[in-house]
Design brief:
Number of strands: 8
Strand content: 15-25%
Shape: globular
Order of helices and strands: HEEEHEHEHEHEHEHHH
CATH superfamily: Alpha/Beta hydrolase fold, catalytic domain
CATH architecture: 3-Layer(aba) Sandwich
Helix content: 25-40%
Number of helices: 9
CATH topology: Rossmann fold
Radius of gyration: 22 Å
Amino acid sequence: MKKFLLGSLLLLIGTFLPANAQERVVSLSTQDGWKLSARYLPGREGSKTVILLHDIGKTHSAFEAFTDKLAIRGIGYLVLDLRGHGASTSKGLYTSFAKEGVDNEYNQMSRDVSAAIEYLLNLGISEQNIFLIGVGMGANVAAKSVSLWPDIGGLALLTPVTNFRDVLPIPALRVYKGLVFIAAAADDKKTFLEASVMRNVAFLSSGEGRVTFATAYDKKGHELLDSWVAPELLQWLQTPQKPEVLPDVLPERNSEESGFVPPEFPIDEDTLIPSVL
């Protein structure tokens, strides 16, 4: 029975991935001299590719469970060790980074994102098929990065905050017109409120149907992703824009034949469903 299930799973994966798809370790170079370690898996032809940005103190391995789900669905990924983390410590550890300043190393992580995007562009992947997904610190870095790459197809932020080590996401969200996914748990009131503010800012910029807000009862960061949000995030990647909701249209009727006299006032939702407040 186990052999049958394993064979079925491998067959399923094979239907989604290219025949030669295999995760490989790649090295990225930033404009300011950092050497970054990353892992890349190509998706099926024409599919999206996501760049995954981890939380502070984590590495690419924090996304292991999620990348397995991406691979099964044929979605490509490039998962980084951000500067100062994991195998990306050519110029030092994150514990030595300044916690303040608009030019500190946390702000400069947007250069890590640029190196990742340029790597994918050189492979022939279009900007519209590149999505950024960040968790915690990585969420703030991802949001800031779209100010440099406004044509990126989509942006997903898990437990972002309005200020992480002076990395500010809201200025970029004010101008980004792409698709946005934001998630936070309700038990952390401060983070939930700040994520809600970012959702409103993104809505004003991107417009109706282009912003998705997901929530759960508890957990944050990578635990929130693995425990609650992964199914919604995967669904968003496959259908990131909500379909347009068309208004109800009343059928045309001949008032003389039916005896029906149409009202003189316009019929809208408020008319059909009176407020009880």
